[in-house]
Write a structure and sequence with these properties.
The chain has 464 residues and is an alpha/beta fold. It has helices at 15-25, 38-44, 59-66, 77-83, 109-121, 138-149, 169-174, 188-201, 215-246, 250-258, 279-292, 296-323, 351-361, 375-385, 390-396, 403-407, 420-423, 427-433, 449-455, and strands at residues 5-9, 30-34, 71-74, 86-89, 126-130, 155-159, 179-183, 210-214, 332-336, 365-369, 397-399, 412-415, 439-442, 458-461. It has 2 domains: 5-205, Rossmann fold; 307-461, Rossmann fold (3-Layer(aba) Sandwich), CATH 3.40.50.720. Helix 19 (449-455) links the parallel strand 13 and strand 14. The structure holds uridine-5'-diphosphate-xylopyranose (UDX) (2 copies) and adenosine-5'-diphosphate (ADP). The active site is at 278 (nucleophile).
């Protein structure tokens, strides 16, 4: 079977970029991305392609090329479902905030709603592809809903987890290390569905990089790949604290460790803590699944990665307070960066949120600047924590439009996100703007200690 018409439910960080690249690379396939969020769809359709809702280097160009040709964004979910022969589910699966598994398990209500919608509006056979990160065995639930509520049409379910990292999404999608497709390898219909999806990717991905497995391996690989990556960051962050106590330098240690080809250099960058929509959520999910299966030690082992990460965020904030003579009450602290890493406007689980929250508890006056994150988003992130009222948050945090403005009259500056622009900032001017001693806390090891100290800063970087 040859796929001619793809529908993707969910126009977010995963669905949007992934479908844009499929449309770009397979011009013969019509790709329709649908979302119930009208504002988001309107932004994807904005005449000025720079206004698309997701910032990723190179993405606007891809959208400009394919939009209106074979890439469409729409709110007509039901229509797109029935027209498609392949449907990707790319809706959000946040951590549950209520009930059983609260704070750990993935909330699958959006997935279930999608499944019921697909079942209701499908009048022809469909291949349904899980794109969102899902706990292992979700496909089983999907299948049960589809088969029991549908119009008697056949559904094949595939798992095709996305491994793209934000900030490098376009490149990751155009040249993926591998594409993983899980399906029912035991039946002819299952194999046919797998092959149909393989053919979509084969437009630009070498066949040797397309891996096919059973559904459960595919689902579990996604969770555990993220757990492995996060574990490396927590491991190097744990060593960064040890470095600070011993005179070793984490950069040198990471280099020495990473040159062992069995370990490799990637994901050994010490930081104020990992963030993003995946790492924490997926590990918590893994912990929850392990616990549910009675595997206490396995659960505790992976949970420690999160505990270490929480410690790293708290430790950074505590270091600031301690350095500022044990009080930041009424002091102006400039935070440069709010996104969870550079080159994205995504702030989910960003370390900056937790550091700001800590500083606000210490009654600091926090001023934030991020080149791509809006004031609305920053305030929403803080409100979501529920630590204090929305009014109190607004009384003590200010969002400004430039790094220089943020640092004006500040007691301390903290680098939270490794934006390139912060590297080339006029640090001499920043120093001049600040109260003295001018404290600078580099949560990303972005700046050169010798240069900054020569300008007069009291400089602290994670891990040395
Ligand atoms: C190790 C380091 O590899 C080496 O660089 C250092 O100088 C000394 O310590 P060694 O202990 O000789 O070397 O063996 P190694 O190959 O690293 O294996 C260590 C253990 O891990 C073995 O029991 C091995 O069976 C096990 N292992 C290794 C696995 O179980 N799985 C693997 O994928 C790799
Ligand atoms: C991650 C996975 O990399 C990707 O494969 C998966 O599909 C989704 O989750 P993403 O969350 O976009 O991607 O970002 P990633 O580059 O992995 O970084 C995650 C967090 O770890 C960021 O906060 C980043 O700053 C931090 N990090 C990463 C470090 O602190 N040090 C490192 O060495 C690497
Ligand atoms: P991700 O990082 O996984 O892409 P996002 O939150 O960025 O997560 O995107 C998920 C999108 O899915 C949101 O824009 C949301 O409105 C959309 N969505 C959730 N449920 C449905 C649904 N039943 N039908 C259509 N869109 C949905």
């Amino acid at each position: 079977m040859k796929v001619k018409n793809i529908c993707c439910i969910g126009a977010g960080y995963v669905g949007g970029p992934t479908m844009a690249i499929i449309a770009q690379k397979a011009p013969g396939i019509k790709v329709t991305v649908v979302d119930i969020n009208e504002k988001r769809i309107a932004a994807w359709n904005d005449a000025d392609v720079k206004n698309i809702p997701i910032y990723e280097p190179g993405l606007a160009e891809v959208v400009a090329e394919a939009r209106g040709r074979n890439l469409f964004f729409s709110t007509e979910v039901d229509k797109a479902i029935d027209e498609a022969d392949m449907i990707f589910i790319s809706v959000n699966t946040p951590t549950k905030t209520y009930g059983i598994g609260k704070g750990m398990a993935a909330d699958l209500k959006f997935i279930e709603l999608c499944a019921r919608q697909i079942a209701r509006f499908s009048t022809t056979d469909k291949i349904v592809v899980e794109k969102s990160t899902l706990p292992v065995r979700t496909a089983e639930a999907l299948k049960s809903i589809l088969d029991n509520t549908g119009n008697g049409v056949n559904f094949q379910i595939l798992s095709n987890p996305e491994f793209l990292a934000e900030g490098t999404a376009v490149n990751d999608l155009q040249a993926p290390d591998r594409v993983l497709i899980g399906g029912d390898l035991d039946t002819e219909a299952g194999k046919e569905a797998i092959n149909a999806l393989v053919d979509v990717y084969a437009h630009w991905v070498p066949r040797t990089n397309i891996l096919t497995t059973n559904v459960w391996s595919s689902e579990l690989s996604k969770l555990t790949a993220n757990a492995f990556l996060a574990q490396r960051v927590s491991s190097i962050n744990a060593l960064s604290e040890l470095c600070e106590q011993t005179g070793a330098d984490i950069k040198e240690v990471a280099k020495a460790i990473g040159m062992d080809s069995r370990i490799g250099p990637k994901f050994l960058q010490a930081s104020v803590g990992f963030g993003g929509s995946c790492f924490q959520k997926d590990i918590l999910n893994l912990v929850y699944i392990s616990k549910s299966l009675g595997l206490t030690e396995v659960a505790d082992y992976w949970e420690q990665v999160i505990i270490m990460n929480d410690h790293q965020k708290r430790r950074f904030a505590a270091k600031m307070v301690k350095t500022l003579y044990n009080t930041v009450s009424g002091k102006k602290i400039a935070m440069l960066g709010w996104a969870f890493k550079k080159d994205t406007n995504d702030t989910r689980e960003s370390a900056a949120i937790y550091v700001a929250d800590y500083l606000l508890n210490e009654r600091a006056e926090v001023v934030v600047y991020d080149p791509k994150v809006s004031e609305e988003q920053i305030l929403a992130d803080l409100d979501y924590l529920n630590t204090r009222s929305a009014e109190e948050n607004r009384a003590n945090i200010t969002v400004v439009n430039s790094a220089l403005e943020a640092t004006q009259g500040a007691h301390a500056v903290a680098i939270m996100t490794e934006w390139d622009a912060f590297k080339t900032l006029d640090w001499k001017q920043v120093y001049h703007n600040m109260l003295k001693p001018a404290f600078l806390f580099d949560g990303r090891r972005l700046l050169d200690r010798h240069e900054l100290e020569a300008l007069g800063f009291e400089f602290y970087a994670i891990g040395s």
